[in-house]
Design goal:
- The protein is mainly beta and 139 residues long.
- It has one domain (2-130): Immunoglobulin-like (Sandwich).
- Helices cover 9% and strands 48% of the residues.
- The chain contains two helices and nine strands; from the N terminus they run ββββαββαβββ.
- Strands 1, 4, 7, 8 and 9 form a five-stranded antiparallel β-sheet that branches. Strands 3-2-5-6 form a four-stranded antiparallel β-sheet.
- Strand 5 (72-79) and strand 6 (86-94) form a beta hairpin.
- The longest helix has 8 residues, at 95-102.
- The protein is elongated and about 55 Å long.
């Protein structure tokens, strides 16, 4: 069974829903892929509804994750607050979809996704780049 490196960089978000009326919005993202522990970006303290992170996360994923539409990358956006973070919205996409899009370009791409909150229409967008490494065989 093989595996490969997967690198994802959360670049920025734009036109997010305002979820904090009194104080400034400070936004961070949490990324989960399959059963791996959730990873988090630093909090953007200046962009409010247009945060920018340019933060890279690295994962080792199995080749079977790349071949199956059921394995998802889930990115949830939150407004950081002292007494509990406030949910803004999220992006879901399959690893296979990302791989199929990037494969003709040498395994990397820059994409934008709408940020969804439940079944409601999108509130802004999320821009990210990603790169798949070469397949490595485990012994």
């Amino acid at each position: 069974m093989g595996c490969r490196m997967f690198e994802i960089t959360l670049i920025s978000a734009n036109d997010l829903e305002v979820v904090r009326k009194v104080f400034k919005m400070e936004v961070h993202a949490r990324v989960s892929i399959g059963s791996t522990p959730e990873k988090r970006t630093p909090t953007d303290k200046h962009g409010e509804t247009n945060p920018a992170w340019n933060f890279t996360m690295n994962y080792t994923i199995s080749e079977s994750m790349v071949q199956n539409f059921n394995n998802m990358v889930v990115i949830k956006l939150y407004c950081t607050r002292m007494f509990g973070d406030k949910y803004i919205g999220e992006v879901h996409t399959s690893i296979k979809e990302l791989f199929d899009l990037a494969y003709p370009n040498g395994g990397c791409a820059v994409v934008s996704f709408p940020v969804l909150k439940g079944s409601v229409n999108s509130h802004g967008g999320l821009k990210l780049s990603y790169k798949f490494g070469e397949r490595v065989i485990n012994f």
